[in-house]
Amino acid sequence: MVAMPSGDIWEPIQAIRREHDRQIHRWMPHINLLYPFYPRDQFQAERVIPRLEAACQQVPGFEVTLATFRYFTHGAKRATIWLDPAPRAALVHLQATLHDTFPGYDEQSRYHGGFTPHLSVGQVTSRRALQSLLMTLQTHWTPLKFRLDAVALIWRTADSPFQVECRIPLANSAGPDQV
Fold first, then answer.
1. Where are the domains of the chain?
2. C-alpha distance from residue 79 to each of 19, 20, 31, 126 (Å)
3. Which of 150, 163, 136 is CA-nearest to residue 64?
4. Coiled-coil segments, which residues (predicted)?
5. Half-sphere exposure at residue 6, Cβ-oriented, CA atoms within 13 angstroms
6. 21 within 8 A of 120, measured Cβ to Cβ
7. 18 Cβ partners below 8 Å, 6+ apart?
8. Rounded CA separation 23/31 (Å)
9. Are the C-beta atoms of residues 145 and 65 closer than 8 Å to each other?
10. Preceding peptide of 36 cis, ω within 30°
């Protein structure tokens, strides 16, 4: 379950990811909300879509801005660079609402400090590379905005990229979009 920027603003994100993200071929630009999630073959049996529709109707759509780069560290040298989506509080509320509906899927919220909304754009393997890349990206970045009016239910096989099963609208948005 992810929040996705609208396709019309993907290119600047993908340009960075093509150079720095080893997962570009597996994932579309996204903000994980619940991951991992039910396997696709359980979507119907677990009534995933009706439950998501009910949860999403509790959260109105909102505008998201991608303006600032941040990072997570993984050990002494490695790091993941990400765009910090704002407003953070709206994304945290959306994720909490989804988590309340599917409490067994808590990986995104069990870290110290809880859920951190983020859109990953790359990985680095040294502190020097991290600081240099952060400075370069932030200096040349033009903030992007998009309206988040749905969440996407995605799936993949072991060796394929993620695909969108459907988009579930947030409150005050159109009905479900089966892809």
1. 2-178
2. 15, 11, 17, 8
3. 150
4. none
5. 12
6. yes
7. 24
8. 14
9. yes
10. yes
Q: What is the pLDDT along the chain (179 residues), one digit of tens a residue?
A: 999 999 999 999 999 999 999 999 999 999 999 988 988 999 888 899 999 999 999 999 999 999 999 999 998 899 999 999 999 999 999 999 999 999 988 777 777 788 999 999 999 999 999 999 999 999 999 999 999 999 999 999 988 999 999 999 999 876 555 55
Rg (CA), the chain: 16
Does the domain spanning 2-178 belong to CATH 3.90.226.10? no
Q: How far apart are CA 7 and CA 146, in angstroms?
A: 9
Q: Please state, in angstroms and rounded to a whole number, the distance separating the CA atoms of residues 27 and 24.
A: 6
